[in-house]
Amino acid sequence: MTDSSALSVTMSAVAEAAGVSRATVSRVFHGSTPVAESTRDAVFAASERLGYVPNVMARVLAARTSDIIGLLLRGPTNPAYGLLFGELQENVSRLGLQMVVVAPSRAEGANFERQALNRLLGLRVGGMFVATGVIRADMLEPFLDKVPVVIIGRPESHPRIYSVSYDEDDNAYQLADAVAGQGHRGVAVVTPAGGNSATEHRRALAMTARLREHGVRVHPVAAPTFGAQEEGAREVIELHRAGHVTAAMFPADLRVLAFMPYLREAGLRTPEDLSVTGCDGILPGIDMIGFTTVRIPVEQAAQRAAEVMKTLLDGSTEIRHERLHGTLLPGRTLGPPPR
What we know:
Elements: H1 3-8, H2 11-18, H3 22-30, H4 37-50, H5 56-63, E1 68-73, H6 79-94, E2 98-102, H7 110-122, E3 127-131, H8 137-140, E4 149-153, E5 162-166, H9 168-181, E6 186-192, H10 198-213, E7 217-223, H11 230-241, E8 247-249, H12 253-265, E9 275-277, H13 286-289, E10 293-295, H14 298-313, E11 321-324, E12 327-329
Parallel strand pairs: 1-2, 1-3, 3-4, 4-5, 5-11, 6-7, 6-8, 8-9
Antiparallel strand pairs: 10-12
Helix pairs in contact: 2-3, 2-4, 6-14, 9-10
């Protein structure tokens, strides 16, 4: 059956084939009230046989409200964002909501993300999750009078935007305390530009500030794009060979992973020659890799964001900025400085 013929099948036709009312078919597909399992099975069997495709947009237009939530997701290939998507989908469904996703590539900036949000509005979503460290809060202001917006992951202080974020300052402090506690007195801190990742930029600045509180000499290393570019990796290694640093701190585990081949190429070991730390703690097999990192509470953030969105859709006007603490994961990549 072609797509056009599937779209022409009506809800009434499904109801007749299943031997139920049209209202029952609506409840099955839209999840408004519970339906007996045997009835659901009959409706699904009839819809599959006829090739029925629910017209979600028609329902939204008729009701003038929507239980569809849009998600702007940055870099879904990043394990942290991928896990967030899966956890959000589970929690949104549990609350009787639906979700559609737009996911810009790493190369696409804030203006593209704003266009993606406009496309979500065009789909008549009832609210929007923003899980990206690129688009600025002021760029979200035009959307605030139209739908509830919840930022997930990155710290936010905008007075009209609810945020459920990881406490990136505390995450960075935990790592900096661990590095300083091992006795390192010269540390390279890989520092991405804020326009590329507000989250990683903030982590790096917080690491730098905390290390300096401990009296550690900090050597910032620019990382203009995601991943340890060769230039940045070479700079870290040169700083080590010149005797300036005995540890390098990266604002994301993926950056550490990208740095490791350069470390091996230089004939260096971690932590015997150079200690390294990351942040996120989501990489599959992280315990086997042995990175010293902070595990961000992705599951808790997804649950809270979904719950918050439900209350906003139900009419709440409360705006809060929740921050969730991560957990330090000591690993093999951090040790005392070489003697």
